[in-house]
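Input structure tokens:
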């Protein structure tokens, strides 16, 4: 029991480290990816961790699993550690252990989608995001990521359809509005549609850090129309 308490106590630290590591930067002129709020790793987590630095945590989880092989949280956190360390084969193996026990585990399905997203395996990412959304269609951030994957698969119409679903449900979703404009401009050559999408962003987020850049996009789209 004492060991379990110690290990579970590490979970927040590990997940914070992983999510801080895998959250892409938002400020670029391409589609905006992974709109999850960045998390700063705890002070005692190295900026560029190595396997050796997490070895003791891994051993704790592995020890716990020897006595409790169906401990979903332990499998999940091991997957997160390996994901953060870019040991993707081991991450997938541990995530799949969770799915063997709980096939509809949303967090694991999402992490697998994210892993395939990050490693350029776009179709696999879409398939996992679809599984997530089949369980909970209200997860707007997952739908935005899936739209980015559709775009990279050269399926802009599917991407646009997904982003419009997000905006219809959540008009305040900044990333969906920015991405919709980018795809309309660059993939559909629809400057007016892009302007409309970005104006919706500006109307809803006049003080957003990206507002100045979006205004510039609008101006350039008007000039080229």
């Amino acid at each position: 029991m004492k060991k379990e308490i110690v290990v579970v106590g590490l979970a927040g630290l590990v997940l914070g480290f992983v999510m801080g590591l895998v959250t892409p930067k938002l400020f670029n002129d391409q589609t905006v990816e992974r709109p999850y709020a960045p998390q700063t790793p705890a002070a005692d987590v190295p900026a560029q961790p190595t396997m050796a630095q997490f070895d003791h945590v891994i051993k704790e989880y592995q020890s716990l699993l020897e006595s409790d092989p169906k401990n979903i949280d332990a499998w999940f956190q091991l997957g997160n550690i390996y994901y953060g360390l870019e040991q993707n084969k081991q991450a997938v193996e541990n995530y799949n252990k969770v799915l063997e026990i709980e096939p509809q585990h949303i967090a694991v399905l999402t992490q697998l989608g994210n892993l395939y997203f990050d490693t350029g395996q776009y179709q696999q990412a879409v398939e996992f995001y679809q599984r997530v959304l089949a369980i909970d269609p209200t997860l707007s951030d997952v739908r935005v990521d899936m739209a980015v994957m559709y775009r990279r698969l050269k399926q802009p119409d599917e991407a646009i359809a997904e982003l419009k679903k997000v905006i219809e449900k959540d008009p305040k979703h900044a990333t969906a509005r920015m991405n919709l404009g980018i795809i309309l401009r660059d993939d559909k050559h629809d400057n007016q549609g892009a302007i409309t999408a970005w104006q919706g962003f500006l109307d809803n987020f006049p003080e957003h850090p990206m507002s100045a850049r979006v205004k510039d996009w609008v101006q350039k789209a008007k000039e080229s129309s």
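The chain has one domain: 2-224. The domain at 2-224 is CATH 1.25.40.10 (Serine Threonine Protein Phosphatase 5, Tetratricopeptide repeat).
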